[in-house]
Amino acid sequence: MKIYIETLGCPKNTVDSENAAAMMKKAGHTIINSPEDANLIMVNTCAFINDAKTESIETILDMAQLKENGDKILMVSGCLSQRYSEELFNEIPEADIFIGVNEYDKINEIINEYTKEKRLRYAKDAPADYCEIPDREIEPSSVSAYLRIAEGCDNVCSYCVIPSIRGPYRSRLMESITEEAERLAEQGVKELVLVAQDVTAYGRDIYGGYALHELLSKLCEIEKLRWIRLLYCYEDSITDELISVMADEEKICKYIDIPLQHVNDKILSSMNRRSTGDSIRAVIKKLRERIPDIHIRTTFITGFPGEGEKEFNELVEFIEETEFERMGAFSYSMEENTPAADMPDQVEQETKERRRDILMDIQREISLKNNTKKIGEVMEVLVDEVMEDGTYMGRTRFDAPEIDNGVIFTSESKLAEGQFVNVEITDAFDYDLVGKAVKI
Ligand code: SF4
C-alpha cells in the first residue's frame, strides 16, 4: 500500500512516526508525501493541551474528507488516540483504525487485521520496559535527527497529562541508543537531538542512578557526529557529572533546554515541581560558571491556579535578572483529569494571556540585546534551507531545530542543506541573526 503519515505534536511523536514508517516499509508498504495519493493515511496525534487536541481532531477530519475520493483507510495514532480511544472511536466513524502510543511494534499486524466490515481500536497501557523498535525511517538527506533515550515520565506535574498517556519512565538500554546513533551517523546525520519527557532522568530506573553523562561520553566517540544537543532537562537532575561532560566535550552543544515553568515557591509546589526559586537560581549560576557560553532555553506557564500579581511579578523580575538566551511562555491550559484542573483560584483566560504576552515582550528585548552582542562574531552555522532568492537559512550550535532562532546569510559560493559553514554576523533582529559566509 501507499501510506501517508501526518505527524503532529512533539519530537517524541516524530520518532514514533519514523519508527512506524520503517516498520511499514519492512512489510512492503511505500511511504509517500501526499495524502491524496495514499491508500492509507495515518494521523499521529497530540493531546498535551487543548489547542493540540483541537488541531489533532481538525486534521483527522480534514484527512477524512479525502476518503470521499476513493478507497482509503484512515488510521489515527498517538497521544489523543491513547487518551480518548473509546470516545474518538464512537465520535469519528470516518476513521477506521485507532491505535495509541504502544502499538507501533504491532502496526503491520493491525493493518492486516483491518477489513471494511470491522473498524479497529487498540490503546494498551505502557509496557514495563522500553519497547525497542529497531528501525527508523528518517528523511534521506537529513543531517539532523532526534534520538529518543527514554519513554514516559515519573514527575507527575499537577497540570500534565503525559504520565497518564505515556506511562511511567522507561530508559532505553545504552547499547541500543548508541547503535541507533551510529546507524544515523552512517546515514549522514551530523546533529543528534536527545529527547524524552525528561532527558536528565535517564538511567535512574535501569542503571540505579543518573547515567546521561555516561551516555553522552559514548555518543561523543561516534566520529561522524558533530553536534549533540539536549532537550527537556529537569533542573534538579542536572548533576555535576552532566555539567562536566557538557563543559569538556566539544561535540556537545553549549545549549540546554530546561522547562522551568515558574520560579515562585508556592506555584512550583502546587505544580508539584521538585524545585524552589533558590534551587533554580543555583543550577543556572552553576551552569553559567562552569560553561561560560552556555545558552539556556526555558519555558514558563502563566496564569497557573493561585498565581496572583505578586507571584507573577516575581516571575517577571526573575526573567529580567536572568536574561535567558532562549525563552517561551504559555498560558496555563486546564487539562481534565489533572490535579491542577480542580484547584481553587483559577485565573481568567484574558489574564493568563496578558501575562504570557508581557513575558514575551520582555524576552524579545533580551533576545535582541543578546543577538546584538554577536555582531562581528564568526559562528559555525548548519545550513537548514537554501532560499529561493539565493540566501540561506541556518542554525548555530545555540539553536535547536524547529523551536529556536535562525541565521539568514549570504554566500559567494554555492552551499547545500546539511553543510556546516562559518558565518560572520553582520546584523541582528529580535530573534534571528544576519550574516555572510566567510572562509576561515
Ligand atoms: S516533566 Fe512534568 S510536564 Fe514534563 S512530561 Fe513529565 S509530568 Fe509532564
Structure, described:
This protein is α/β, with parallel strands linked by helices. The chain contains 13 helices and 19 strands. It has helices at residues 11-26, 50-66, 79-83, 85-91, 107-113, 162-166, 174-186, 212-220, 240-248, 265-270, 277-290, 309-322, 349-372, and strands spanning 2-7, 30-31, 40-45, 73-78, 97-98, 120-121, 144-148, 150-151, 170-171, 191-195, 227-230, 252-257, 295-302, 326-331, 378-386, 392-395, 407-410, 420-428, 433-437. Helix 5 (107-113) links the parallel strand 5 and strand 6. The mean pLDDT is 96. Iron/sulfur cluster (SF4) binds next to helix 6. Iron/sulfur cluster (SF4) binds at residues 153, 155-157, 160, 162-163, 197-198, 234.
Largest sheet: 6 strands, parallel
Bound molecules: iron/sulfur cluster
Mean pLDDT: 96
pLDDT under 50 segments (min length 5)?
none
Category by helix and strand content: alpha/beta
Overall geometry: globular
The largest sheet has its strands arranged as 2-1-3-4-5-6
Cα separation of the termini? 50 Å
- The count of DSSP E runs of length 2 or more, i.e. the number of strands, is 19
